[in-house]
Amino acid sequence: MISRIWVCDDEPSERFPVFTRGNVGEVFVEAVSPLTWTALGRLAWEPAWRDAFCAIGAFTQDEFKAPGQPEITACFGGYIYINMSVTRVLAVRIPGMSVEAIDRSLFGDAADVPPYRPDPRDADPARTEAVTGWLQSLFTADPRPAADRYRDDVLALQARRPDFTALSDRALLDYFRSLIPQARRLFEQHVLNTYGANVLTSVVAQLAEAAGAAELAANVTAAVGDVDSAAHSFELWTLSRKIRSSPVLSSLFDGGVDGLMERLLARDAADARAFAADWQHFLDRWGFLGPSVWDLRSATYATDPALVLRMLERARRSADVADPASRFTELASRRNATVAELSSRLSQSPDLQGRFVAAARSVGNYLTARERGKTTCTRWNEEARSVMRELGGRHAMRGVVQRWQDILLLQLDELDGFLAAPQSFADVIAKRRQMLALLETKEPPFVFEGAPPPLSAFGDRGKRSDAQEAAGEVLHGIGVSPGVHTGRARVIASLDVDSELEPGEVIVTEVTDASWGPLMLSAGAVVVETGAPISHAAIVSRELGIPAAVSVPDATRRIANGQMVTVDGSTGTVTLR
To answer: What is the pTM of this model?
Structure first.
Protein backbone atom coordinates (compact mmCIF):
# COMPACT_ATOMS: atom_id res chain seq x y z
CA MET A 1 0.00 0.00 0.00
CA ILE A 2 1.21 3.51 -0.82
CA SER A 3 0.88 6.57 1.36
CA ARG A 4 -1.85 8.48 -0.43
CA ILE A 5 -1.57 12.24 -0.90
CA TRP A 6 -5.14 12.73 -2.16
CA VAL A 7 -8.20 10.80 -1.07
CA CYS A 8 -8.79 9.22 -4.49
CA ASP A 9 -5.16 8.31 -5.25
CA ASP A 10 -4.58 4.87 -6.78
CA GLU A 11 -2.06 2.11 -6.33
CA PRO A 12 0.85 1.96 -8.80
CA SER A 13 1.29 -0.95 -11.20
CA GLU A 14 4.00 -3.58 -10.86
CA ARG A 15 3.38 -4.96 -14.34
CA PHE A 16 3.21 -1.54 -16.06
CA PRO A 17 5.35 0.77 -13.88
CA VAL A 18 5.89 3.96 -15.95
CA PHE A 19 3.30 6.75 -15.76
CA THR A 20 3.34 10.18 -17.41
CA ARG A 21 1.39 13.42 -17.48
CA GLY A 22 2.04 13.55 -21.22
CA ASN A 23 -1.15 13.96 -23.26
CA VAL A 24 -3.50 13.64 -20.28
CA GLY A 25 -2.12 16.85 -18.77
CA GLU A 26 -3.87 18.76 -21.54
CA VAL A 27 -7.33 17.86 -20.30
CA PHE A 28 -6.61 17.41 -16.58
CA VAL A 29 -4.56 20.53 -15.94
CA GLU A 30 -5.59 20.80 -12.30
CA ALA A 31 -5.84 18.26 -9.49
CA VAL A 32 -8.90 16.06 -9.94
CA SER A 33 -11.98 16.24 -7.72
CA PRO A 34 -12.77 12.99 -5.85
CA LEU A 35 -16.25 12.61 -7.33
CA THR A 36 -14.96 13.06 -10.88
CA TRP A 37 -12.35 10.37 -10.45
CA THR A 38 -14.32 7.79 -8.44
CA ALA A 39 -17.44 8.09 -10.61
CA LEU A 40 -15.97 8.63 -14.06
CA GLY A 41 -12.29 7.77 -13.90
CA ARG A 42 -12.72 4.40 -12.25
CA LEU A 43 -16.16 3.43 -13.58
CA ALA A 44 -16.07 4.84 -17.12
CA TRP A 45 -12.70 6.00 -18.45
CA GLU A 46 -10.41 3.24 -17.13
CA PRO A 47 -12.73 0.36 -18.16
CA ALA A 48 -13.36 2.06 -21.51
CA TRP A 49 -9.61 2.20 -22.15
CA ARG A 50 -9.35 -1.52 -21.41
CA ASP A 51 -12.36 -2.20 -23.64
CA ALA A 52 -10.69 -0.34 -26.49
CA PHE A 53 -7.33 -2.09 -26.14
CA CYS A 54 -9.07 -5.45 -26.07
CA ALA A 55 -11.30 -4.51 -29.00
CA ILE A 56 -8.29 -3.92 -31.23
CA GLY A 57 -6.82 -7.24 -30.07
CA ALA A 58 -3.70 -5.85 -28.40
CA PHE A 59 -4.58 -7.03 -24.88
CA THR A 60 -6.88 -9.33 -22.98
CA GLN A 61 -8.79 -8.22 -19.91
CA ASP A 62 -6.88 -10.59 -17.62
CA GLU A 63 -3.63 -8.69 -18.29
CA PHE A 64 -4.88 -5.81 -16.17
CA LYS A 65 -5.75 -5.40 -12.52
CA ALA A 66 -9.19 -6.28 -11.23
CA PRO A 67 -12.03 -3.92 -12.24
CA GLY A 68 -12.12 -0.79 -10.15
CA GLN A 69 -8.32 -0.68 -9.79
CA PRO A 70 -7.06 1.81 -12.40
CA GLU A 71 -3.93 0.90 -14.31
CA ILE A 72 -4.02 2.42 -17.79
CA THR A 73 -4.83 5.82 -16.33
CA ALA A 74 -4.62 6.58 -12.63
CA CYS A 75 -4.56 9.30 -9.99
CA PHE A 76 -1.38 10.06 -8.03
CA GLY A 77 -0.97 13.07 -5.78
CA GLY A 78 -4.35 14.27 -7.01
CA TYR A 79 -3.19 14.47 -10.64
CA ILE A 80 -4.17 12.16 -13.47
CA TYR A 81 -1.46 10.16 -15.21
CA ILE A 82 -1.49 7.87 -18.24
CA ASN A 83 0.40 4.58 -18.26
CA MET A 84 3.36 4.81 -20.59
CA SER A 85 4.33 1.16 -20.13
CA VAL A 86 0.98 -0.08 -21.45
CA THR A 87 1.36 2.09 -24.53
CA ARG A 88 4.87 0.75 -25.11
CA VAL A 89 3.60 -2.82 -24.94
CA LEU A 90 0.98 -1.80 -27.49
CA ALA A 91 3.81 -0.61 -29.75
CA VAL A 92 5.66 -3.90 -29.34
CA ARG A 93 2.57 -5.84 -30.38
CA ILE A 94 1.71 -3.69 -33.41
CA PRO A 95 3.54 -4.89 -36.53
CA GLY A 96 5.88 -2.27 -37.92
CA MET A 97 5.53 0.04 -34.92
CA SER A 98 8.40 0.97 -32.62
CA VAL A 99 8.41 2.05 -28.99
CA GLU A 100 10.32 5.17 -29.98
CA ALA A 101 7.75 6.17 -32.59
CA ILE A 102 4.75 5.78 -30.32
CA ASP A 103 6.56 7.52 -27.44
CA ARG A 104 7.13 10.49 -29.70
CA SER A 105 3.59 10.55 -31.09
CA LEU A 106 2.01 10.56 -27.64
CA PHE A 107 4.50 12.14 -25.27
CA GLY A 108 6.87 14.17 -27.42
CA ASP A 109 10.56 14.51 -26.58
CA ALA A 110 10.24 15.10 -22.86
CA ALA A 111 13.44 14.80 -20.86
CA ASP A 112 14.04 12.24 -18.11
CA VAL A 113 11.69 9.70 -19.63
CA PRO A 114 12.62 6.23 -18.32
CA PRO A 115 13.92 3.94 -21.07
CA TYR A 116 11.82 1.06 -22.29
CA ARG A 117 12.64 -2.06 -20.27
CA PRO A 118 11.48 -5.18 -22.16
CA ASP A 119 9.46 -7.74 -20.25
CA PRO A 120 9.08 -11.33 -21.53
CA ARG A 121 5.31 -10.82 -21.47
CA ASP A 122 5.43 -7.80 -23.80
CA ALA A 123 5.82 -9.73 -27.05
CA ASP A 124 2.77 -11.89 -27.65
CA PRO A 125 2.37 -13.50 -31.09
CA ALA A 126 -1.31 -14.16 -30.49
CA ARG A 127 -1.96 -10.49 -29.68
CA THR A 128 0.12 -9.37 -32.65
CA GLU A 129 -1.91 -11.58 -34.95
CA ALA A 130 -5.14 -10.26 -33.48
CA VAL A 131 -4.10 -6.60 -33.70
CA THR A 132 -3.00 -6.97 -37.34
CA GLY A 133 -6.60 -6.88 -38.52
CA TRP A 134 -7.22 -3.62 -36.67
CA LEU A 135 -4.03 -2.15 -38.04
CA GLN A 136 -5.03 -2.97 -41.60
CA SER A 137 -8.48 -1.49 -41.04
CA LEU A 138 -6.94 1.91 -40.24
CA PHE A 139 -5.97 2.31 -43.88
CA THR A 140 -9.46 1.58 -45.22
CA ALA A 141 -12.11 2.31 -42.58
CA ASP A 142 -13.68 5.72 -42.02
CA PRO A 143 -14.35 6.32 -38.30
CA ARG A 144 -16.26 9.55 -38.81
CA PRO A 145 -19.81 8.12 -39.23
CA ALA A 146 -19.53 6.34 -35.87
CA ALA A 147 -18.21 9.53 -34.26
CA ASP A 148 -21.21 11.37 -35.69
CA ARG A 149 -23.61 8.81 -34.22
CA TYR A 150 -22.10 9.12 -30.74
CA ARG A 151 -22.31 12.91 -30.96
CA ASP A 152 -25.97 12.66 -31.98
CA ASP A 153 -26.63 10.33 -29.02
CA VAL A 154 -25.37 12.96 -26.60
CA LEU A 155 -27.33 15.72 -28.32
CA ALA A 156 -30.42 13.54 -27.93
CA LEU A 157 -29.57 13.03 -24.26
CA GLN A 158 -29.45 16.77 -23.77
CA ALA A 159 -32.72 17.26 -25.63
CA ARG A 160 -34.59 14.89 -23.30
CA ARG A 161 -32.96 16.18 -20.11
CA PRO A 162 -35.46 16.10 -17.26
CA ASP A 163 -36.32 19.21 -15.29
CA PHE A 164 -33.64 18.97 -12.62
CA THR A 165 -35.44 21.44 -10.36
CA ALA A 166 -38.40 19.05 -10.17
CA LEU A 167 -36.29 16.05 -9.08
CA SER A 168 -35.57 15.09 -5.49
CA ASP A 169 -31.99 14.90 -4.23
CA ARG A 170 -32.13 11.12 -4.48
CA ALA A 171 -33.52 11.24 -8.02
CA LEU A 172 -30.72 13.57 -9.08
CA LEU A 173 -28.09 11.18 -7.73
CA ASP A 174 -29.80 8.23 -9.43
CA TYR A 175 -29.87 10.14 -12.72
CA PHE A 176 -26.18 10.95 -12.39
CA ARG A 177 -25.36 7.28 -11.85
CA SER A 178 -27.50 6.29 -14.83
CA LEU A 179 -25.32 8.40 -17.12
CA ILE A 180 -22.06 6.59 -16.37
CA PRO A 181 -22.50 3.60 -18.74
CA GLN A 182 -22.87 5.99 -21.68
CA ALA A 183 -19.66 7.76 -20.65
CA ARG A 184 -17.87 4.42 -20.88
CA ARG A 185 -19.13 3.80 -24.43
CA LEU A 186 -18.22 7.29 -25.56
CA PHE A 187 -14.74 7.12 -24.13
CA GLU A 188 -14.05 3.70 -25.64
CA GLN A 189 -14.73 5.16 -29.08
CA HIS A 190 -12.55 8.15 -28.28
CA VAL A 191 -9.64 5.88 -27.29
CA LEU A 192 -10.02 3.81 -30.46
CA ASN A 193 -9.88 6.94 -32.61
CA THR A 194 -6.99 8.39 -30.60
CA TYR A 195 -4.79 5.35 -31.07
CA GLY A 196 -5.81 5.04 -34.69
CA ALA A 197 -4.67 8.63 -35.19
CA ASN A 198 -1.48 7.92 -33.20
CA VAL A 199 -0.52 4.96 -35.35
CA LEU A 200 -1.31 6.69 -38.64
CA THR A 201 0.57 9.84 -37.60
CA SER A 202 3.56 7.69 -36.67
CA VAL A 203 3.39 5.88 -40.02
CA VAL A 204 3.34 9.21 -41.87
CA ALA A 205 6.34 10.43 -39.85
CA GLN A 206 8.31 7.23 -40.43
CA LEU A 207 7.67 7.23 -44.17
CA ALA A 208 8.43 10.94 -44.51
CA GLU A 209 11.76 10.21 -42.86
CA ALA A 210 12.30 7.25 -45.20
CA ALA A 211 11.69 9.64 -48.08
CA GLY A 212 14.39 11.94 -46.74
CA ALA A 213 11.94 14.69 -45.77
CA ALA A 214 11.06 14.24 -42.10
CA GLU A 215 10.32 17.96 -41.82
CA LEU A 216 7.36 17.58 -44.21
CA ALA A 217 5.42 15.18 -41.98
CA ALA A 218 3.54 18.03 -40.25
CA ASN A 219 2.21 19.20 -43.62
CA VAL A 220 0.40 15.91 -44.14
CA THR A 221 -1.73 16.32 -41.01
CA ALA A 222 -2.44 20.04 -41.49
CA ALA A 223 -5.82 21.49 -42.45
CA VAL A 224 -7.69 18.19 -42.44
CA GLY A 225 -10.99 20.06 -41.98
CA ASP A 226 -14.16 19.56 -39.97
CA VAL A 227 -12.25 19.47 -36.66
CA ASP A 228 -14.62 20.17 -33.79
CA SER A 229 -11.95 21.42 -31.40
CA ALA A 230 -11.15 24.21 -33.85
CA ALA A 231 -14.70 24.95 -35.05
CA HIS A 232 -15.60 27.30 -32.22
CA SER A 233 -12.47 29.33 -32.94
CA PHE A 234 -13.60 29.89 -36.53
CA GLU A 235 -16.99 31.03 -35.21
CA LEU A 236 -15.34 33.45 -32.81
CA TRP A 237 -13.26 34.86 -35.62
CA THR A 238 -16.51 35.75 -37.41
CA LEU A 239 -17.73 37.45 -34.23
CA SER A 240 -14.45 39.33 -33.93
CA ARG A 241 -14.94 40.75 -37.44
CA LYS A 242 -18.39 42.01 -36.48
CA ILE A 243 -16.91 43.78 -33.48
CA ARG A 244 -14.08 45.25 -35.52
CA SER A 245 -16.41 46.62 -38.18
CA SER A 246 -18.93 48.11 -35.73
CA PRO A 247 -18.19 51.40 -33.91
CA VAL A 248 -20.87 50.52 -31.35
CA LEU A 249 -19.41 47.11 -30.53
CA SER A 250 -15.84 48.38 -30.64
CA SER A 251 -16.73 51.07 -28.12
CA LEU A 252 -18.33 48.52 -25.82
CA PHE A 253 -15.28 46.24 -25.97
CA ASP A 254 -12.97 49.22 -25.45
CA GLY A 255 -14.53 49.44 -21.99
CA GLY A 256 -13.03 46.09 -21.02
CA VAL A 257 -14.45 42.64 -20.41
CA ASP A 258 -15.68 43.33 -16.87
CA GLY A 259 -19.36 44.25 -17.09
CA LEU A 260 -19.28 43.96 -20.88
CA MET A 261 -22.42 41.87 -21.27
CA GLU A 262 -24.39 44.14 -18.93
CA ARG A 263 -23.36 47.17 -20.99
CA LEU A 264 -24.15 45.31 -24.18
CA LEU A 265 -27.64 44.29 -23.12
CA ALA A 266 -28.37 47.81 -21.90
CA ARG A 267 -27.42 49.34 -25.26
CA ASP A 268 -30.42 49.87 -27.53
CA ALA A 269 -28.61 49.60 -30.84
CA ALA A 270 -29.09 47.17 -33.70
CA ASP A 271 -25.46 46.02 -33.64
CA ALA A 272 -25.62 45.39 -29.89
CA ARG A 273 -28.85 43.41 -30.14
CA ALA A 274 -27.52 41.33 -33.04
CA PHE A 275 -24.28 40.61 -31.24
CA ALA A 276 -26.12 39.59 -28.06
CA ALA A 277 -28.11 37.07 -30.11
CA ASP A 278 -24.97 35.77 -31.82
CA TRP A 279 -23.21 35.46 -28.48
CA GLN A 280 -26.05 33.46 -26.96
CA HIS A 281 -26.06 31.18 -30.00
CA PHE A 282 -22.32 30.63 -29.52
CA LEU A 283 -22.77 29.75 -25.84
CA ASP A 284 -25.64 27.39 -26.70
CA ARG A 285 -23.30 25.53 -29.05
CA TRP A 286 -19.96 25.75 -27.22
CA GLY A 287 -20.68 26.80 -23.66
CA PHE A 288 -19.61 23.38 -22.34
CA LEU A 289 -15.96 24.05 -23.22
CA GLY A 290 -13.41 25.33 -20.74
CA PRO A 291 -9.95 24.69 -19.29
CA SER A 292 -9.46 21.28 -17.65
CA VAL A 293 -13.04 20.59 -18.70
CA TRP A 294 -12.95 16.85 -18.01
CA ASP A 295 -13.21 17.59 -14.30
CA LEU A 296 -16.75 18.25 -13.12
CA ARG A 297 -15.59 21.29 -11.14
CA SER A 298 -14.15 23.02 -14.21
CA ALA A 299 -15.39 26.45 -15.19
CA THR A 300 -16.84 26.61 -18.69
CA TYR A 301 -17.49 29.30 -21.26
CA ALA A 302 -21.13 29.32 -20.11
CA THR A 303 -20.42 29.62 -16.37
CA ASP A 304 -17.48 32.00 -16.77
CA PRO A 305 -17.95 33.90 -20.06
CA ALA A 306 -14.96 36.12 -19.26
CA LEU A 307 -12.73 33.17 -20.18
CA VAL A 308 -13.73 33.40 -23.82
CA LEU A 309 -14.60 37.11 -23.92
CA ARG A 310 -10.98 37.93 -23.04
CA MET A 311 -9.84 35.85 -26.00
CA LEU A 312 -12.44 37.44 -28.25
CA GLU A 313 -11.20 40.84 -27.12
CA ARG A 314 -7.71 39.89 -28.32
CA ALA A 315 -8.95 38.40 -31.60
CA ARG A 316 -10.86 41.56 -32.58
CA ARG A 317 -7.55 43.47 -32.63
CA SER A 318 -6.14 41.25 -35.35
CA ALA A 319 -6.23 42.53 -38.91
CA ASP A 320 -8.37 40.78 -41.50
CA VAL A 321 -5.27 39.27 -43.11
CA ALA A 322 -5.07 36.93 -40.10
CA ASP A 323 -8.28 35.22 -41.23
CA PRO A 324 -7.85 31.55 -40.26
CA ALA A 325 -9.99 30.43 -43.21
CA SER A 326 -7.44 31.87 -45.62
CA ARG A 327 -4.57 30.24 -43.78
CA PHE A 328 -6.49 26.97 -43.74
CA THR A 329 -6.92 27.09 -47.51
CA GLU A 330 -3.21 27.74 -47.98
CA LEU A 331 -2.26 24.84 -45.70
CA ALA A 332 -4.71 22.49 -47.42
CA SER A 333 -3.03 23.27 -50.73
CA ARG A 334 0.38 22.69 -49.16
CA ARG A 335 -0.81 19.40 -47.71
CA ASN A 336 -1.92 18.12 -51.10
CA ALA A 337 1.37 19.17 -52.67
CA THR A 338 3.35 17.48 -49.89
CA VAL A 339 1.45 14.22 -50.26
CA ALA A 340 2.22 14.25 -53.98
CA GLU A 341 5.90 15.04 -53.36
CA LEU A 342 6.42 12.35 -50.73
CA SER A 343 4.57 9.82 -52.86
CA SER A 344 6.91 10.63 -55.73
CA ARG A 345 9.98 10.27 -53.52
CA LEU A 346 8.81 6.81 -52.44
CA SER A 347 7.95 5.65 -55.96
CA GLN A 348 10.99 3.39 -56.10
CA SER A 349 9.45 1.34 -53.29
CA PRO A 350 5.86 0.62 -54.35
CA ASP A 351 4.99 -1.00 -51.01
CA LEU A 352 6.15 2.04 -49.04
CA GLN A 353 4.50 4.38 -51.51
CA GLY A 354 1.16 2.59 -51.26
CA ARG A 355 1.37 2.52 -47.47
CA PHE A 356 2.13 6.24 -47.34
CA VAL A 357 -0.70 7.22 -49.68
CA ALA A 358 -3.18 5.15 -47.67
CA ALA A 359 -1.93 6.59 -44.37
CA ALA A 360 -2.06 10.16 -45.70
CA ARG A 361 -5.64 9.60 -46.82
CA SER A 362 -6.79 8.02 -43.54
CA VAL A 363 -4.94 10.10 -40.95
CA GLY A 364 -7.18 13.13 -41.54
CA ASN A 365 -10.30 11.04 -41.04
CA TYR A 366 -8.99 9.71 -37.74
CA LEU A 367 -7.89 13.11 -36.51
CA THR A 368 -11.35 14.47 -37.29
CA ALA A 369 -13.04 11.54 -35.56
CA ARG A 370 -10.67 11.79 -32.61
CA GLU A 371 -11.47 15.45 -32.02
CA ARG A 372 -15.20 14.86 -32.53
CA GLY A 373 -15.11 12.06 -29.98
CA LYS A 374 -13.21 14.20 -27.50
CA THR A 375 -15.67 17.05 -27.98
CA THR A 376 -18.59 14.66 -27.56
CA CYS A 377 -17.12 13.39 -24.29
CA THR A 378 -16.72 16.92 -22.96
CA ARG A 379 -20.28 17.70 -24.06
CA TRP A 380 -21.42 14.68 -22.04
CA ASN A 381 -19.34 15.92 -19.11
CA GLU A 382 -21.43 19.07 -19.03
CA GLU A 383 -24.59 16.95 -18.71
CA ALA A 384 -23.11 15.21 -15.65
CA ARG A 385 -21.78 18.53 -14.35
CA SER A 386 -25.24 20.08 -14.63
CA VAL A 387 -26.70 17.39 -12.38
CA MET A 388 -24.08 17.98 -9.71
CA ARG A 389 -24.40 21.75 -10.10
CA GLU A 390 -28.10 21.42 -9.23
CA LEU A 391 -27.51 19.01 -6.34
CA GLY A 392 -24.56 20.94 -4.93
CA GLY A 393 -26.34 24.25 -5.42
CA ARG A 394 -29.26 23.08 -3.31
CA HIS A 395 -26.95 22.21 -0.43
CA ALA A 396 -25.18 25.54 -0.78
CA MET A 397 -28.56 27.29 -0.52
CA ARG A 398 -29.28 25.24 2.61
CA GLY A 399 -26.00 26.33 4.14
CA VAL A 400 -24.59 22.80 4.22
CA VAL A 401 -21.66 23.61 1.90
CA GLN A 402 -20.00 26.87 0.90
CA ARG A 403 -20.44 26.45 -2.86
CA TRP A 404 -21.89 23.86 -5.20
CA GLN A 405 -18.46 22.48 -6.16
CA ASP A 406 -17.94 21.27 -2.57
CA ILE A 407 -20.13 18.25 -3.30
CA LEU A 408 -17.45 17.13 -5.76
CA LEU A 409 -15.04 16.74 -2.82
CA LEU A 410 -16.94 13.59 -1.91
CA GLN A 411 -16.34 10.19 -3.48
CA LEU A 412 -19.20 8.47 -5.27
CA ASP A 413 -19.72 5.91 -2.51
CA GLU A 414 -20.02 8.72 0.06
CA LEU A 415 -22.88 10.53 -1.63
CA ASP A 416 -25.60 8.27 -0.24
CA GLY A 417 -24.40 8.95 3.29
CA PHE A 418 -24.13 12.65 2.51
CA LEU A 419 -27.75 12.85 1.34
CA ALA A 420 -28.85 11.06 4.51
CA ALA A 421 -26.81 13.22 6.92
CA PRO A 422 -25.15 16.18 5.15
CA GLN A 423 -23.82 17.85 8.30
CA SER A 424 -21.81 14.76 9.25
CA PHE A 425 -19.53 15.43 6.25
CA ALA A 426 -18.76 19.05 7.14
CA ASP A 427 -15.29 18.34 8.54
CA VAL A 428 -14.43 15.95 5.69
CA ILE A 429 -15.36 18.53 3.07
CA ALA A 430 -13.49 21.32 4.88
CA LYS A 431 -10.27 19.30 5.13
CA ARG A 432 -10.45 18.20 1.49
CA ARG A 433 -11.14 21.74 0.34
CA GLN A 434 -7.97 22.85 2.12
CA MET A 435 -5.94 19.99 0.64
CA LEU A 436 -7.22 20.64 -2.86
CA ALA A 437 -6.21 24.29 -2.54
CA LEU A 438 -2.69 23.13 -1.66
CA LEU A 439 -2.54 20.69 -4.58
CA GLU A 440 -3.59 23.45 -6.97
CA THR A 441 -0.39 25.31 -6.11
CA LYS A 442 1.75 22.32 -7.10
CA GLU A 443 3.12 20.94 -10.35
CA PRO A 444 3.37 17.15 -10.38
CA PRO A 445 6.40 15.41 -11.91
CA PHE A 446 5.93 14.80 -15.63
CA VAL A 447 6.89 11.13 -15.46
CA PHE A 448 7.79 8.51 -12.86
CA GLU A 449 8.59 4.82 -12.68
CA GLY A 450 7.59 2.54 -9.81
CA ALA A 451 6.43 4.26 -6.63
CA PRO A 452 4.48 7.50 -7.10
CA PRO A 453 6.42 10.65 -6.17
CA PRO A 454 5.83 12.15 -2.72
CA LEU A 455 4.39 15.64 -2.40
CA SER A 456 7.89 16.95 -1.67
CA ALA A 457 8.83 16.07 -5.27
CA PHE A 458 6.14 18.36 -6.68
CA GLY A 459 7.20 21.78 -7.90
CA ASP A 460 5.59 25.09 -6.97
CA ARG A 461 3.30 26.23 -9.74
CA GLY A 462 4.20 29.58 -11.23
CA LYS A 463 7.52 29.82 -9.41
CA ARG A 464 10.29 29.37 -11.93
CA SER A 465 13.89 30.41 -11.73
CA ASP A 466 15.01 33.12 -14.11
CA ALA A 467 17.17 31.21 -16.59
CA GLN A 468 16.45 32.78 -19.95
CA GLU A 469 18.69 31.80 -22.83
CA ALA A 470 20.90 34.26 -24.67
CA ALA A 471 20.06 35.64 -28.09
CA GLY A 472 21.02 33.27 -30.88
CA GLU A 473 20.25 30.14 -28.89
CA VAL A 474 18.07 27.55 -30.60
CA LEU A 475 15.57 25.50 -28.60
CA HIS A 476 14.51 22.18 -30.07
CA GLY A 477 11.08 20.58 -29.92
CA ILE A 478 8.75 18.78 -32.32
CA GLY A 479 7.38 20.62 -35.32
CA VAL A 480 3.65 19.93 -35.42
CA SER A 481 2.16 22.76 -37.51
CA PRO A 482 4.09 24.04 -40.55
CA GLY A 483 5.21 27.57 -41.22
CA VAL A 484 7.73 30.07 -39.89
CA HIS A 485 6.91 33.13 -37.81
CA THR A 486 8.95 35.74 -35.96
CA GLY A 487 7.34 37.72 -33.16
CA ARG A 488 7.55 38.70 -29.52
CA ALA A 489 7.06 35.93 -26.98
CA ARG A 490 4.11 36.13 -24.64
CA VAL A 491 4.56 33.69 -21.74
CA ILE A 492 1.11 32.64 -20.54
CA ALA A 493 0.41 30.64 -17.39
CA SER A 494 -3.29 29.94 -17.91
CA LEU A 495 -6.55 31.23 -19.35
CA ASP A 496 -7.69 32.32 -15.89
CA VAL A 497 -5.94 35.67 -16.25
CA ASP A 498 -5.89 38.23 -19.04
CA SER A 499 -2.87 37.31 -21.13
CA GLU A 500 -2.67 40.69 -22.87
CA LEU A 501 -1.62 38.84 -25.99
CA GLU A 502 -1.11 41.20 -28.90
CA PRO A 503 -1.71 40.23 -32.55
CA GLY A 504 1.23 38.34 -34.00
CA GLU A 505 2.84 37.51 -30.68
CA VAL A 506 4.04 33.98 -29.95
CA ILE A 507 2.18 32.08 -27.24
CA VAL A 508 4.68 30.33 -24.95
CA THR A 509 3.06 28.07 -22.37
CA GLU A 510 3.32 24.76 -20.57
CA VAL A 511 0.24 23.08 -21.99
CA THR A 512 -2.93 23.94 -23.89
CA ASP A 513 -6.23 22.28 -24.63
CA ALA A 514 -9.04 22.95 -27.10
CA SER A 515 -10.34 25.88 -25.04
CA TRP A 516 -7.19 27.84 -25.97
CA GLY A 517 -8.19 27.88 -29.65
CA PRO A 518 -9.77 31.37 -29.60
CA LEU A 519 -6.59 32.82 -28.08
CA MET A 520 -4.57 31.25 -30.89
CA LEU A 521 -6.55 33.39 -33.35
CA SER A 522 -4.45 36.34 -32.25
CA ALA A 523 -1.14 34.49 -32.13
CA GLY A 524 1.54 34.33 -34.78
CA ALA A 525 2.82 30.99 -33.49
CA VAL A 526 2.59 28.64 -30.52
CA VAL A 527 5.35 27.10 -28.38
CA VAL A 528 4.39 24.50 -25.78
CA GLU A 529 6.56 22.68 -23.26
CA THR A 530 4.62 19.41 -23.46
CA GLY A 531 2.63 17.83 -26.25
CA ALA A 532 3.05 15.66 -29.31
CA PRO A 533 1.87 15.55 -32.95
CA ILE A 534 -1.71 14.72 -31.99
CA SER A 535 -2.00 16.89 -28.90
CA HIS A 536 -4.69 19.55 -29.01
CA ALA A 537 -2.18 22.38 -29.35
CA ALA A 538 -0.87 20.67 -32.48
CA ILE A 539 -4.23 19.85 -34.04
CA VAL A 540 -5.84 23.23 -33.39
CA SER A 541 -2.73 25.11 -34.57
CA ARG A 542 -2.74 23.15 -37.82
CA GLU A 543 -6.41 23.89 -38.44
CA LEU A 544 -5.93 27.60 -37.74
CA GLY A 545 -2.80 27.76 -39.87
CA ILE A 546 -0.45 28.83 -37.06
CA PRO A 547 3.13 27.48 -36.82
CA ALA A 548 3.60 25.44 -33.67
CA ALA A 549 6.38 23.62 -31.84
CA VAL A 550 5.61 21.32 -28.91
CA SER A 551 7.75 19.37 -26.46
CA VAL A 552 10.13 22.34 -26.13
CA PRO A 553 11.79 21.70 -22.75
CA ASP A 554 11.40 24.48 -20.17
CA ALA A 555 10.21 26.94 -22.83
CA THR A 556 8.45 29.16 -20.28
CA ARG A 557 11.66 29.41 -18.28
CA ARG A 558 14.15 29.73 -21.12
CA ILE A 559 12.23 32.32 -23.17
CA ALA A 560 11.79 35.77 -21.69
CA ASN A 561 8.44 37.51 -21.93
CA GLY A 562 8.70 40.01 -24.79
CA GLN A 563 11.76 38.40 -26.36
CA MET A 564 11.77 38.14 -30.14
CA VAL A 565 11.70 34.52 -31.31
CA THR A 566 11.41 32.69 -34.61
CA VAL A 567 9.31 29.53 -34.59
CA ASP A 568 9.70 26.95 -37.34
CA GLY A 569 6.64 24.73 -37.12
CA SER A 570 8.09 22.14 -39.50
CA THR A 571 11.39 21.49 -37.72
CA GLY A 572 10.26 22.35 -34.19
CA THR A 573 13.04 24.87 -33.62
CA VAL A 574 12.63 28.11 -31.68
CA THR A 575 15.41 30.63 -32.32
CA LEU A 576 15.89 33.41 -29.78
CA ARG A 577 16.56 36.80 -31.33
So the answer is: 0.92
